[in-house]
Amino acid sequence: MGIKTISEIHINNRLTELLTIGAFDLKITTFVFGCFIKISRMIVFPNAKINLGLNIVSKRNDGYHNLETIFFPVNKWNDVLEVIPSTQNTDEFSVSGLKIDGAANNNLCLKALEYMRQHTSIPPLKIHLHKVIPFGAGLGGGSADAAFMLKLLNEQFQKNFSYSVLEKMAATLGADCPFFIKNQAVMARGIGNEFSEISLQLKSLWLLIVAPGIHVSTAEAYGGIIPKSPSIPINAIITKPVEEWRKFLKNDFEDTVFRKYPAIADIKENLYRNGAIYASMSGSGSAVYGLFKDKPEIIWSSSYVTHLEEIS
């Protein structure tokens, strides 16, 4: 919409400060944007996720597929979502950062706001989304934006919806949206919306994610899939040392996607050549990640979007 918001003027300096202090959730108290306005708890940092393993188990009667995977939050790779009261009689929405496909009025942040308004009163808002997580890369960025929008509205306007209710709201926006409500590692089944808690310790490993900017459609990803139950369930594999995951922990989408897009396969091989103890495509792609014991130093194409963090 081309709207100039306060965040567009001040966001870079504030973002640097907030990321430095690690303010990644709703426990943010007060922000002063320049000399314009003082706002309490109206900015959140939706994070990415990766899939640890992904098995397509069976085809459903409704046309979807049953799967099993582990959703793991990438807590230090974040979009920035800012919401302030609008001075207009309607909502205002603007975007900066990485490009998002599709019309602005179809953005999941607005869908989340619309859905919340079906259940409670919310005044007109000015919303600014700064995109850092690549769109359509299997990293859940859009779903995270929607889920964090629900949490922000619930917190800011004191609606007191429980996590369970928020998860049900999020499920109407996307299969993996409910994951970002609690934002903890889970085993996901069904269409990716049935969660069970897991114990998973990856602390002190380095996580490197590489997004080559290749769009892989859902139809393409599922095109070569023959559903089958895995010989070893994912929740059993992750009890093994990470060094053994390479032999057992698979993403069923990789064979089809790698055949059509060799550049994505090359990223995975490059990660292993440079010391990854485990590497995989996330979701249906096209982002690929590697887990390392030591901080990796790899030079990638300037057209790739990369993220490196030490898991804490």
Structure description:
The protein has 312 residues and is α+β, with helices and mostly antiparallel strands. The chain folds into two domains: 6-49 and 77-182, Ribosomal Protein S5, domain 2, CATH 3.30.230; 206-310, Alpha-Beta Plaits (2-Layer Sandwich), CATH 3.30.70. It is built from ten helices and 14 strands. It has helices at 6-21, 108-117, 141-156, 163-171, 179-182, 218-223, 234-237, 245-248, 254-260, 262-273; strands at 30-33, 37-40, 43-44, 47-59, 65-78, 80-85, 92-97, 125-131, 186-189, 194-197, 206-211, 278-281, 288-292, 305-310. The strands form four sheets. The protein has a four-stranded mixed beta sheet with strand order 3-6-8-7. A four-stranded antiparallel beta sheet has the order 4-5-9-10, covered by helices on one side. A four-stranded antiparallel beta sheet has the order 12-13-11-14, with helices on one face. β1 and β2 form a beta hairpin. The longest helix has 16 residues, at 6-21. The two termini are 38 Å apart. Mean pLDDT is 88; it is low at 1-41.
